[in-house]
Amino acid sequence: MSSERDTDYVPVACAFHERLEFSVLRRQRLLLRYRIGDGVEEGVVLPTDVVTRDGAEWLGYRTEDGRSGWLRLDTLLSAEPQP
Questions:
Q1: pLDDT value at 18 more than 80
Q2: Side-by-side strand order, sheet with 68-72
Q3: CATH topology of domain 8-81
Q4: pLDDT per residue as tens digits for the range 20-36
């Protein structure tokens, strides 16, 4: 999970949140671009859940090589559906 403090969480737009939830329901792979530290990373993931906990919203995911993890929604820069 992100190391950012939960009190620093900035809510994302409802439409973006809904798109992520629909991607989970449809099992739609996403190309994510996200902030990590002072940099930007990207990768293709299968979103597995969108949850609210500890004062922040999170996206659960699984990578193509089977690793899983969580990203805070306010670190996401984009989430593009993949074929």
A1: yes
A2: 68-72, 56-63, 39-53, 30-36, 76-81
A3: SH3 type barrels. (2.30.30)
A4: 999 999 999 999 999 99
